[in-house]
Design a protein that fits this description.
This protein is mainly beta. Helices cover 0% and strands 51% of the residues. It is built from no helices and 11 strands. Strands 2, 4, 5, 6, 9, 10 and 11 form a 7-stranded mixed beta sheet that branches. It has a 4-stranded antiparallel beta sheet with strand order 1-3-8-7, with no helix packed on it. Strand 5 (44-51) and strand 6 (58-60) form a beta hairpin.
């Protein structure tokens, strides 16, 4: 049974930082691409970032490039998202997700599994 559990969200002022974590189980984590996606109020699903199994190939959505850093620890079955210089438009429910057929994007059908999410609110 696949389980993905996110944590680390909260309320932060613009310009602040948060570090999200996701612990995974029930599938071969060390050979699976992992992604962070987010549900933005009124805008639907957005893909944020992805990391390959070795942690050497990383991709970011343009709006977060240079501010967010994705990483993973295969020994602990965990991925992380360090979010810096946060903006109000980063407010969303953040999920970690496994891809469906090596896809990623802004449709739920791009993903095989996702967690319940952790809320990030950026507000003054």
């Amino acid at each position: 049974q696949v389980q993905l559990v996110e944590s680390g969200g909260g309320v932060v002022q613009p310009g602040g930082s948060l570090r999200l974590s996701c612990v995974a189980s029930g599938f071969p984590f060390g050979t699976t691409w992992m992604h962070w996606i987010r549900q933005v109020p009124g805008k639907g699903l957005e893909w944020v970032s992805g990391i390959d199994p070795s942690g050497t190939k990383i991709v970011y959505q343009t709006s977060v490039k240079g501010r967010f850093v994705i990483s993973r620890d295969n020994a602990r079955n965990m991925i992380y998202l360090q979010m810096n210089s946060l903006k109000p438009e980063d407010t969303a429910l953040y999920h970690c997700a496994t891809p469906h057929a090596n896809q990623y994007g802004s449709l739920w059908t791009h993903y095989e599994n996702w967690g319940q999410g952790t809320q990030v609110t950026v507000s003054s």
